[in-house]
Amino acid sequence: MKKRVKAIIQVIMVIGIFLTLGIWQTTQADAADNSLQRIKQRGELIMVTSPDYPPYEFQVNKNGKSRIVGMDIDVAKKVAKDLHVKLVIKSMNFDSLLVAIQTGKADMAIGGINPTTTRRQSVDFSKIYYSGGQSFLINSSDVNKYKSVKNLRGATIGAQTGTLQYGLAKKKIPNSTVKGMDKSTDLVLALKTHKIDALGIEKPSAEAYVKNDPSLKMIPSGYHLDKNEVGAAIAFKKGSDSLVNAVNKSIDQIKQQHLTDQYLASAGKYMKVNTVNTSMWHYWSYFAKGVEYTILISIVATFFGVLIGVILALMRFSKQKWIRGLAISYTEFIRGTPLMVQVMFVYFGIGVVVNIPALISGMIAVSLNSGAYVAEIIRGGINSVAAGQTEAAESLGLSKRDMMRFVILPQAFKNIWPALGNEFISLIKESSIVSIIGVTDLIYQLNIVRADTYRGVMPIFVAMLLYFIMTFALTRLLNHYEGKMKHAG
Torsion angle of alpha carbons 276, 282, 287, 288, nearest 10°? Predict the structure, then answer.
């Protein structure tokens, strides 16, 4: 046991050293501010956003084609045009936006981000380009109950995790219970199903929901806030002074020409396009793309998971203590940490040193995770092979390699096929976690459809049905091959 703990500690230390070196290298590279020069040389301005927050940023489905639109997107396009570069948009969860720019995944983050004092300690901000104010969404049936923010004392308030609204609700509404969720769409659904009493949200977004959903109403927040912290600003990595100064010139023009009014009007037109037809069939291409990515990730993770699992299982049977220790340490460490953390570590942590795309990062993380579980399944299968089989193989003069290849492993796989099948089925469902880094799998597309259509439950039902179809089809396929193995035996 002591050796195992020691090996696990060594693995953690290696990871810590690896990250420290990566951060040091990044810091050294950024010691001289070349943020603007780097973008112009690349010819691209990479921006991250969370496109589930109309009218700031959301996806529109027009003629079967999907694209991200909204006031913030128009602001970003103006900035890119003034810099004479191409705008590249990456999507991910709101609470990952600042991490993305800190780790070099993007040049700037936009998404109705308020430049609070706490956030300014971690990232740089542009000037505020729009101040929409704060509001609360409530159910229409509660209009007489919650006439103002004073009536919300002691109520359950919802707010998006990591936002200004979450902190304000905790600080300024006495005796209230604040519940945070990653997606505003989840919060709206929680409100409509009476899991929360009110939802703290930016005023333009609240207005958008009220216009498109008659079951919701809006009340003013009544907050008295510092003008320097309230309003939407663009976030940058610390030390990006040249880039911030260039962007501020564009923001000055946006304010002087009152362009945000035009951008909001344009966003309103796009929102009407989305709500003309909110049937799930109209969004079939979204779900189809989600299924495509989910299957792709699952297939790749299955292949590499089995490969890693076999290698780790064989390492566990090695006579070399350090090889066994390495395999045990890896297996215990991976199985002892959540897949979500592993996905974020591969994308953001390793991304400090090597810039890995979101899809590849998701595949790597899910494969590494699956490999640890498959290793234990295969190890159990190898142990289940009767000792007489090994003795018989040795009597025939087979080498240990041939014995494992032709005698042990074939029988082991036959014994563990049901357990291995369950792991493959679980992979399809667990791969949904990659949506947190912006991979357009089924869960990611589900949230986009919910944001676009203002329908909370039906997209979830469609996703459930699609997951069931995929897992049921795989179950039948695995059962078919299991039957053939038994017949062959």
Answer: -150
